Amino acid sequence: MLMNRVETVLVNSPPRRWLQRYEARVLTALGGRTPGAHVAELGCGSGYGTRLILDEFGAARVDAVDLDPAMISRARHRLRRHTGRAHLARGSATDLRSAFHDVGGGQNGTYDAVFDFAIIHHIPNWREALDEVARVLKPGGRFFFDEVTATALARPTYQVLFDHPSEDRFTAGEFLHELSHHGLDVGERWQTRIGGDYLLGVATRQ
């Protein structure tokens, strides 16, 4: 589901950049860095998270997907000095094989890690997205996630300002429980913020 205009402005704002840097530090503390890794990113937006994955997490290559062609264009501009290390494609987070077919990405067991910087809550069939994460991860690969839960989405501010799917949204507990159904083991490597509004963690593909 594409973001509305208000959310598009927000996710491209300096406060969101600061927040992503903070979240990257939390995720690193929970799951470590990814030096030399081949990584996928769900919903790359304007490419700021992609740059963090390359520069801060140390990935060698990122295959990044987004539904919005305008965001892909912004990401290409932001990542111009990373030519050859960032492959950007328009497509769905539930079908990475189609999104990355031209570079041979998105196959079973392709990636050392997958990153989700607050994208899966935008996806109506969010369980399919988790299934896709598990499919493309190598055994032992890591899923880094930062998500917005049903607790936050039920707040008036979210309902007035943003457009999100309204049916079958997940709480932090439901998201963590669902991971195990897809062979993703999170253990104790997770935390919530602001009364369960936000969930960050790192799960390992079994």
Automatic annotation (TrEMBL):
Protein's name according to its UniProt entry: Methyltransferase domain-containing protein
A GO biological process held by the record: methylation
The keyword Transferase belongs to this UniProt entry's keyword annotation: yes
Stretches assigned to the Methyltransferase domain: 39-141
Leader sequence segment: none
This protein's UniProt keywords: Methyltransferase, Transferase
Molecular function terms, GO-annotated: methyltransferase activity
InterPro entries with a match to the protein in the record: Methyltransf_25, Methyltransf_Superfamily, SAM-dependent_MTases_sf
